[in-house]
Amino acid sequence: MNIIENINSRLIFDEDEIFAGGESDVEEVIRISPVPLPEDYIGFLKQISGEDSCGPEFEVEDEGVSISIWSAKMALEKLEEFSRPSHQDFIGRVWLFGDDLGDLVFFFGTGKDGFGLYRTSAGGLNLEDAEKISDTLTDFLVHGVGIDVATSL
Fold this sequence. Notes:
With 153 residues, this protein is α+β, with helices and mostly antiparallel strands.
């Protein structure tokens, strides 16, 4: 399924800012991720990781909040940014893929509710306090599962 073409109606974004490409960055993400990355996420990365793309920012309709899903290049840069000695245990067990443009980060990993998409504080970065958003990226961005979880404080 093409996620971009089927985005949930609650998520508003500028389609003109979506650029396919970045294959070498996508391959690097797959290679270094400490967790197996779902096929829907890999396909989505290929849709949004074109040259100079940071990835789409989705505004949640009538909520005044945003969800940013990072391009492959941005995810690699964020990995470097978050790779501090105090975060190594966390970073070694998850793949960071986006944020709320504030104090929350989104990641793939296995938390207290099994494997899926989670959110946690960017300052804390721990699995114990992470909240599950959804099982898959498709559930999240297409079916709207977990939008409220991802954007609530």
